[in-house]
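W.,

You were right to be curious about this one. When I first looked at the sequence I had no strong expectations either way, so I just let the prediction run and decided to look at it fresh. Below is the sequence, 159 residues in total, followed by the output.
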Amino acid sequence: MRVGALSRAQLVAALEAAGVGLNASAELLLRHEAFDQQRVEAFEVVQRTVGQLGLTDGAPLSTVLATAQAQGLSLCPLVTGPYLRLVMLDQQSAPDSVLSNGSAPSASLTVASLPLDHGDVLPKGFYLRVVDGRPWLRGYHATDEHVWSPDDRLVFRVG
């Protein structure tokens, strides 16, 4: 995975050209200063379910992230979401078209990154999903009281 090679404007244009849908939370994240201070990085990513991390009863996001880090996985830079969306346009389509339901939607892939703040105002990060054949990059909100399901899938940086 290679991130940081495009300016914010180029990245947004690439998403638009690829037909990627954005929700308001993703648009807000794309306006964050992290996209002004990008540096080019290359790294490997892996997918893990919350259950594969050993959290078979699910867990809050802070526990999921800490558990992954204790297992040698790292958090992705915030900018990973849009770049990952562009290289995963062939992601499997979701079995339903529900875009928001208070939990990680079916067939979604959440990019594990540090939340921008510890409050509940800003979105926590990005997730990828394909709905009715259209790829989406969506921002999500989650309090630490929310328990992620053992089946929820996240992407981590290796190393």
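Here's what jumped out at me. The CA atoms of residues 15 and 86 lie 7 Å apart. And, maybe more interesting for your project: Residues 8-17 form the longest helix (10 residues).

Coffee later to discuss?

I.
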